[in-house]
Write a structure and sequence with these properties.
With 204 residues, the chain is α+β, with helices and mostly antiparallel strands. Helix content is 16%, strand content 37%. The longest helix has 11 residues.
Length: 204
């Protein structure tokens, strides 16, 4: 994975070349990412990152997310949904939710992550237990959180809040805390958009 080739950008968004993923993170270059949030009328579907992941192991993240490879268009990011969740969506069915600049501080090994995240949402009402084709190596399972509860966690509430977890074999009632979410600056504002895409009336 460190040998994947990515388009690298400077602070102004100018393309500065194509580099190995490992080198992009070593040098702190900006690069492109695709984030897809799957919503239902009753909640937001998050993936639980595999415990073996190098970054944010075991944390709750966007339904599907990943880097755009060198030369890929934004719409090509939909392969992440196929690879991680085992589902295919048409790009026209996605609701664009903006491009967000997200920069993580350098880790203990000096690697920095600076992403231009192209964020989308899609409504999908399928039952939790029908998500049987998710990648068991990359994803430990899926978690469904009610819209109001997701908004609370995204806004900084510590929790715990009730949720439903699916590990590919059974659905279980669990509790989720705010520190289980992958830190993402735009989450607070995102919750309102996700509820809208899911057909929920705006909160008063």
């Amino acid at each position: 994975m460190d040998d994947e080739l990515l388009d690298a950008f400077d602070e102004r968004g100018c393309h500065i070349g194509i580099k190995r993923r490992a080198d992009v993170h070593r040098d702190g270059d900006w690069h492109l990412a695709f984030h897809l949030w799957v919503v239902r009328a009753d909640g937001v579907l998050l993936q639980r990152r595999a415990a073996t992941k190098a970054s944010w192991p075991g944390r709750l993240d966007a339904s599907a997310a990943g880097h755009l490879l060198a030369g890929e268009a934004v719409r090509d990011g939909l392969r992440e949904a196929e690879e991680e969740l085992g589902v295919a969506y048409a790009f026209g069915d996605l609701e664009p939710l903006g491009v967000h600049r997200v920069a993580d501080e350098a880790d203990q090994e000096g690697r920095a992550n600076r992403e231009l995240q192209h964020v989308f949402a899609v409504r999908d009402e399928r039952a939790l237990e029908t998500w049987t084709a998710f990648d068991r190596v990359e994803v430990d399972g899926l978690v469904l959180i009610a819209h109001a509860d997701f908004a609370a966690l995204a806004g900084g509430a510590p929790g715990p809040i009730p949720a439903s977890a699916w590990d590919g074999e059974r659905v279980a009632a669990i509790e989720v805390t705010g520190d289980e979410l992958v830190p993402t600056p735009y989450l607070g504002a995102l919750a309102t958009d996700l509820a809208r895409v899911a057909g929920q009336p705006p909160q008063q």
